Amino acid sequence: MPKTLFDKVWDQHVVTELENGQTLLYIDLHLVHEVTSPQAFAGLREAGRRVRRPDLTYATMDHNVPTDNPHHVVDLIAKKQLETLAENCRDFGIRLADLDSPHQGIVHVIGPELGLTLPGKTIVCGDSHTSTHGAFGAIAFGIGTSEVEHVLATQCLWQARPKTLKVELTGRLQPGVFAKDVILALIAKYGVGFGTGYAIEFAGDFVRGLSMEGRMTLCNMSIEAGARAGLIAPDEVTFAYLQNRPHAPRGAEWEECLRLWRELSSDEGAVYNKVVQMDVSLLEPQVTWGTNPSMGGSVHSLLPEVAAPNSAFSQQDLQNAYAYMGLSPGMSMLGVPVQHVFIGSCTNGRIEDLRLAAALVEGRRVASHVRALVVPGSKQVKQQAEEEGLDKIFQAAGFEWREPGCSMCLGMNPDLVPAGERCASTSNRNFEGRQGRQARTHLVSPAMAAAAAIAGEFVDVREWMQGKELNRVGSIQPA
Amino acid sequence: MLEAFNQHRGKVAVLPNANVDTDQIIPKQFLKRIEKSGFGDVLFYDWRYDEKGQPRPEFVLNHPESQGASILLAGDNFGCGSSREHAVWALRDYGFRAILARSFADIFYNNCFKNGVLPVVLSEEAWDGLEPIRQGVLRELEVDLPGEVIRLPDGKSFSFTLAAHAKMMLMEGLDDVGVTLRHQQKIDRYELYHRVAYQRVY
Ligand code: SF4
């Protein structure tokens, strides 16, 4: 029987299956960070258990690392969490990219960058955006802290096989429109629940033409569509990205891997539980205006009426969203002033994102009322950007150039948006309070964020794209 | 060991909003602790307290009639957003043993029964039938896990379903790792034999 990519990877990892449909799934890579792991290690200690496969486990510090001076952790609890992770990694024999490591960064940026993320793997992490790694043809999903403990102890997880959803993306983007706009538009069109219970496979000629960075952006936000996992069949783009990365196989092993990985695509005639299609050619730059990622649309579209029939949102939800965001129906996002701009996160904190933003801000100045931050996703991204002089471009334009971490994506470190102020953010969540109490978050692409920083308000970045071929820029090539 | 769940009768707190996300259930400033307990005090913090840390009288958990509630009645897509398990710890630590909702976000739902909290997905009929609770006419109900049924004091009852594995865990108060270690030999075998084809790869 023809199989989907998801089924192939899943079937290779079944340890045992119960009659109730629960599968004990073997995990090839377990990524760990400081926030969701302390209680898991505490649980192991209480029960006198060990980590079954420390060699398949890798830890980093990212969520509450200060990005101005990472070693100056003022928040005592954050400090405690960072120290606890270091201690746990020492005690249980786990590799750790700590604050001094050149490999430190956001967990979903460093996994691929280090070649830990590989096609055909099962990958978990106590963070919902683990779906990012699916861009390499891996089954990757976020887990809770009890599950972190479970994987540490057993290297396995109980899972019910999700249904499969194929999202077929066709067409070619207009200049100034990016993968981020595609995933925001998909979620705006189909809602935050359309992937619930499914693993999404992104396919179609649009996906094949995307860089790994773009693919990761798509998979990263699968969780915002309700799907725990999003994946893309590996191809030459994937292999070129991975070759020679620190933990990627080499030599004869590499050749053997390529042979196995080339099998990892959905068979002709494979059946999905659901299929949706979207042509990306006419998409306009997207901006969210509400308090979940589906409350968004083109920067030109008019915000929905509260009492509109057939609305995807209840009257109450819309009223709450407008009150929180300080917006009203019938207006558009075009020209709405912003006070903060955040370029970074595991959605858009990679080298391609920074190159794009830098190209747009070069020779321009951040508007005087805007505070703009660039936070590279990892030490390696930062280093590469500095080698290319991007840091100078950003700083000359008035951006702050920071150390790697999650930063303003969730404001667990001191990078917060003050109450009532507006932030154009390249992150993935616009929930109430995500970037600070009463902070107003608008999710956008790095290009839209960069343009908003300069203009001081939301603009249509397509008008800024003249002479800039920015849709296809390559990944960092490992040295 | 967790507390075993069988029949539970308790007071209901009503929070019918859709898409209550884990950022609301437990705001991120409280995630930095390294313990598992004590999160109940900060459950729904931003909705429960104002900027000065004073209780907001309009929020349901601050209503006098909600004090001591052990069952939460919620709307659609409860627990969406970040995968933080602290959300369930906070609900549990506050005293909630069961959460009845129109629907749940996946990760949150799974996190519930790992922590001895019963998540009940309400049928359309059950949701309608709980109208007297939402109106505050009735304030208590009974959740019968072995029988998979909810009973109202007015005599009405509604059935629900739960996967057998999840049900067994809640009823036996079983820790997840303990369940899995019964399969240890299979895991050993998987690593030894099945992975031969891939061992060089991973
Ligand atoms: S950047 Fe944001 S979404 Fe990504 S791992 Fe960090 S906190 Fe989570």
TrEMBL record, chain A:
EC number from the UniProt entry: 4.2.1.33
Domain Aconitase/3-isopropylmalate dehydratase large subunit alpha/beta/alpha: 7-456
UniProt xrefs under PROSITE patterns: ACONITASE_1, ACONITASE_2
Alphabetized SUPFAM superfamilies for the sequence: Aconitase iron-sulfur domain (SSF53732)
Catalytic activity: citrate = D-threo-isocitrate; (2R,3S)-3-isopropylmalate = (2S)-2-isopropylmalate
Keyword Metal-binding: yes
Pathway assigned to this chain's UniProt record: Amino-acid biosynthesis; L-leucine biosynthesis; L-leucine from 3-methyl-2-oxobutanoate: step 2/4
GO molecular function: 3-isopropylmalate dehydratase activity; 4 iron, 4 sulfur cluster binding; aconitate hydratase activity; metal ion binding
Biological processes annotated in GO: L-leucine biosynthetic process
Chain positions recorded as [4Fe-4S] cluster binding sites: 346, 406, 409
Cofactors required: [4Fe-4S] cluster
Function summary: Catalyzes the isomerization between 2-isopropylmalate and 3-isopropylmalate, via the formation of 2-isopropylmaleate.
Quaternary assembly: Heterodimer of LeuC and LeuD.
PANTHER family: 3-ISOPROPYLMALATE DEHYDRATASE, HOMOACONITASE, MITOCHONDRIAL-RELATED
Protein family according to the UniProt entry: Belongs to the aconitase/IPM isomerase family. LeuC type 1 subfamily.
Name of the featured protein: 3-isopropylmalate dehydratase large subunit
Species in which this protein is naturally found: Alicyclobacillus tolerans
From TrEMBL, chain B:
Pathways per UniProt: Amino-acid biosynthesis; L-leucine biosynthesis; L-leucine from 3-methyl-2-oxobutanoate: step 2/4
InterPro entries linked: 3-IsopropMal_deHydase_ssu, Aconitase/3IPM_dehydase_swvl, AconitaseA/IPMdHydase_ssu_swvl, IPMI_Swivel, LeuD
Residue ranges annotated for the Aconitase A/isopropylmalate dehydratase small subunit swivel domain, each copy included: 3-124
Keyword line: Amino-acid biosynthesis, Branched-chain amino acid biosynthesis, Leucine biosynthesis, Lyase
Catalytic activity: (2R,3S)-3-isopropylmalate = (2S)-2-isopropylmalate
One Pfam family cited in the UniProt record for this chain: Aconitase_C
GO terms under biological process: L-leucine biosynthetic process
Keyword Transit peptide part of the UniProt annotation: no
GO molecular function: 3-isopropylmalate dehydratase activity
The organism's place on the tree of life at top rank: Bacteria
SUPFAM superfamilies listed in its UniProt record: LeuD/IlvD-like
Gene Ontology CC terms: 3-isopropylmalate dehydratase complex
Keyword Amino-acid biosynthesis: yes
Protein EC: 4.2.1.33
Functional note: Catalyzes the isomerization between 2-isopropylmalate and 3-isopropylmalate, via the formation of 2-isopropylmaleate.
NCBIfam families, A to Z: leuD, PRK01641.1
Quaternary structure, from the entry: Heterodimer of LeuC and LeuD.
Family the UniProt entry places it in: Belongs to the LeuD family. LeuD type 1 subfamily.
Name listed for the protein in its UniProt record: 3-isopropylmalate dehydratase small subunit
The organism of origin for this protein: Alicyclobacillus tolerans
